[in-house]
Request: fold
Amino acid sequence: MVNDNNVILGDCLEVLRDIPPESVNLIYLDPPFFTGRRHRSATRNGDKQYAFDDVWIDSDDYLNFLAKRLSACKRIMKKDASIFVHCDHNNVQFARQVLDLTFGSDNFQSDIVWFYKRWSNAKRGLLQQHQTILFYSMDCSFKWRPMLLDYSATTNIDQILQKRTRDMRGKSVYATDVTGNIVYGKEKRGVPLGDVWDIPFLNPKAKERTGFPTQKPVILLERIINLTTDEDDLVVDPFCGSGTTLVAAKLTKRRYLGIDILPDAVALTKSRLDNPVRTESALMRDGIEAYTNHDPWVESHLVGLSYSRIQRNSGMDAILKESIGGKNVFLRVQRENEALSQTVFLLENAIKNKGDAIGFVIATHDEPLVMRESNVRVLRSPAMQLNHTLAHHFGGDVSSSSFPRKFSEAVSGF
Ligand SMILES: C[S@@+](CC[C@H](N)C(=O)[O-])C[C@H]1O[C@@H](n2cnc3c(N)ncnc32)[C@H](O)[C@@H]1O
Reply:
């Protein structure tokens, strides 16, 4: 017999046999994915290495491994329990096959797409940006705690609040009262959570990052736990690795039990449980809009250029899609209340660690600037160039002589 709030070393097939039948509310498992390799990684300072094997004789060997362990999971699940099996493109077809056989295809609930953005070198073919989590239950009475998300900025909330009814032909129409006015239905508090979850991958500096290979984010597990269990329910992870599920269970006041065949994983999980940490995702809290620089002033001065907007860097606004002479070209538009020398200084600093790069400041007001040795050049904005041309033709004061006359002249120094 095993106690809960515990981490046990061993093959989960053996340990699961010691858990009483029908005693568990939720099982999440993230087994090896049939990648055919040994996964290794290390802590940030490199003083501890972790590794586990994901090597199989063939697909039957893997199917057999999963089938035995999933049926051991089924035995301990309560009637209203759920099971979530984490997969990627390597094993999802095998897991689906075994889960259908073990739990019955009628008890398949969802294949959740965990979507994340990830930078990677371009390769032939599509960049992998999701994993799949297969969700099954024992029957249709599984516990469910619905979660509502905010409406998106493009949702016409006024329209969705309008009550609907059926007309004489059974067609869905907006309901009106006797005077023909629109009738508003009950308050709608949000959109039910869908099966595509946009949750950031753990970034290299995340507080909760342990250095264990394939570690999942706590917020992903918290979501699964919150959807399918109540406080004090028992959550089991038979392949607990670094212990993410147990940390999430502890943070959400559930009981937990973790199993892993690797002594290092058990030790790591225990130490994480002593000080459970969740990395807040600012992206999820504040929304993508908070990270998107929309500045009409800047954008109006970049019109006509082929560029990508740079987010979250206060010194630069954009990078040109084409390099010049093999060098990346970064741009910054002079702000309305910014001295030109300050704009140049900010861009110089921002490109310091960008290798062999060129910077262009787009000057938006006429002021003299003493240019010195720098990898940042100053160009007049198109509006300024026009003003200069007009002043030149019709007289007037063209105060700045420091601007290169045209783009090619500014580029020629590089
Ligand atoms: C993909 S990792 C789990 C990662 C985990 N979800 C996390 O967030 O850190 C898979 C884990 O399964 C463990 N494992 C492999 N075979 C096992 C078995 N038969 N019984 C228990 N654990 C096993 C490995 O040692 C590894 O830690």
Summary: DSSP finds twelve helices and 19 strands in the chain. The chain has three domains: 6-147+193-284, 151-191, 293-411.
